[in-house]
Request: fold
Amino acid sequence: MSEEKSEKTDGSEVSLGHLATDISFVTRVLRAQLLEQTGDFFEKHGVASGQVALLNLIALNPGVSQKELAEAVVLKKSALTKAINELERNGLIERRKSGGDQRYNALHLSEQGLARVAAMRTDMLGLQDTILGVLSDAERAQLFDMIWRVIRSR
Reply:
């Protein structure tokens, strides 16, 4: 796909015009392609797309609170609670009381969760290579640097 055209099914092209540089449109197209490319991964590992990030963040931050996790993934607390409940029901995470505050639940991966994240990691790296294969390592670093600058500018 060029910057300003998208191929139609009959081989002709649709002009994207100003949408070629509209972040909402471009990220929507990218998201649709990502969902298409990652479907087999989610099925193989028995997880939903949002669960991958949650499991990996808990693995990277044992004892993280639901509030901290909700902020990291930009989810409302109610949506996160639903996802955490499902992960706990599936035996992938554990809630543990932490310190003197009995209201605080520290999130940890269970043994099964640790194994699931380890099994996913290789496939996650392979997916990254497939999705970003058209970019050099330097271009990938630059892409993520620019994306995170936009995110942090809010």
User: Anything to note?
Assistant: The CA atoms of residues 42 and 49 lie 7 Å apart. Strands lie at 5-7, 13-15, 93-98, 101-109. Helices lie at 23-45, 49-60, 66-73, 77-89, 111-131, 137-152. The chain has a mean pLDDT of 89.
